[in-house]
Amino acid sequence: MKIVVIGGTGLIGSRLIEMVQEHGHEGVAAAPSTGVNTLTGEGLAEVMQGADAVVDVSNSPSWAREDVWNFFTTSTSNLLEAEKAAGVGHHVALSIVGSERLPDNDYFRAKIAQEALIEGSGVPYSLVHATQFFEFVKGIADEATRDDGVHIAPVRFQPIAAADVSLNVGKVAVGAPLNGRREIAGPEQYQMDEFIGEALKALGDPRTVVPDVHARYFGSELEQRSLVPGDGATLGRIGYFDWLKDNQGK
Questions:
Q1: What is the Cβ-side half-sphere exposure of residue 159, based on CA atoms within 13 angstroms?
Q2: What three-state secondary structure class fits 104?
Q3: Taking the model in full, what pTM does it have?
Q4: At what angle do helices 11-22 and 162-173 cross, to 10 degrees?
Q5: What integer pLDDT is reported at residue 247 of this predicted model?
Q6: Phi-psi category of residue 67: left, alpha or beta, with phi > 0 → left and psi -120 to 50 → alpha
Q7: How far apart are the C-alpha atoms of 193 and 212, rounded to whole Å?
Q8: H/E segment holding residue 216
Q9: At 219, is the pLDDT very low, low, confident or very high (cuts 50, 70, 90)?
Q10: Pairwise CA distance, residues 35 & 137, whole Å
Q11: 3-state secondary structure (DSSP) of residue 101
Q12: Each residue's pLDDT tens digit, 128-154
């Protein structure tokens, strides 16, 4: 199979390219640095030729409200048009568990719009909804930091390793289109404020976590299950603290 990975040089995409190639498939990294720009359309027609599946794991370089909306809607529209012209039979997109539950979050709102374009395109598709990545835990704490500490809501939280995300996205890409979604999450569920506190301690970070039911997660207040998957989610194999031992200092 020829699998084109949009965002193929990034955190998830680079791992995905390695995995599909290890299993005997042709993995093509598509990104501005490789001559493919989904916003302008540059290189799209060429890279789609002979593709069996296109996997979109790209991300907006800016999370400003208009920027993130324009990125996901423009990029996805251009991708789908190029796929239809080339006869690509499977579009796979990485999205976020709980996006539809937080439509006031600018980033999630843009991802919802992206999914609507995919679902209405006529291209066979699969949506993979992942929970937050282990690699982003410090960034979550940074965004939640105030003068008196790190304000985190005491809600359920089930983060996942990027390696497990890539593995599961790859499995979906080489299979038949779901024409629906699959949820993936880490192997363990925590209370978010307790988890962030333990994670910061393990990182040697002296900040104090403040449990706060009104704490905002990138602009949105959270309900108890806003960020965790429903029943039947596919669970990763790597636990956070095992991952941390292997990745500290990298």
A1: 21
A2: coil
A3: 0.94
A4: 50
A5: 84
A6: alpha
A7: 8
A8: strand 216-217
A9: confident
A10: 32
A11: helix
A12: 999 999 999 999 999 999 999 999 999
Nearest to 195 by CA among 237, 164, 152: 152
In the chain, % helix, strand, coil (3-state, to 5) comes to 40, 20, 40
In what helix (H) or strand (E) does residue 157 lie, and over which residues does it extend? strand 156-157
How far, in Å, CA of 53 to CA of 176, rounded? 10
Say if CB 50 and CB 66 are below 8 A apart.
no
Question: Do 5 and 31 form a contact (C-beta atoms < 8 A)?
Answer: no
Whether the per-residue pLDDT at 249 is higher than 60: the answer is no
Q: How far apart are the first and last CA of the chain?
A: 33
- β pairing state of 190-191 and 220-221: unpaired
What are the structure tokens assigned to 242, written together?
């095992």
Q: How many other C-beta atoms can be found within 10 angstroms of the C-beta atom of residue 250? A: 4
As a whole number of angstroms, the distance between CA 173 and CA 89 comes to 11
**Rounded average pLDDT over 49-77:** 95
Phi and psi at residue 65, to the nearest 5°:
-50, -55
Residue in the structure block whose two tokens are 């994670």: 199
Q: How far is the C-alpha of 115 from the C-alpha of 121, rounded, in Å? A: 10
d(CA 29, CA 55): 10
Phi (first) and psi of residue 98, to 5 degrees: 90, 0
Residue 150, beta-bridge partner list: 145, 209
What does the block give as tokens for 63?
A: 């999370």
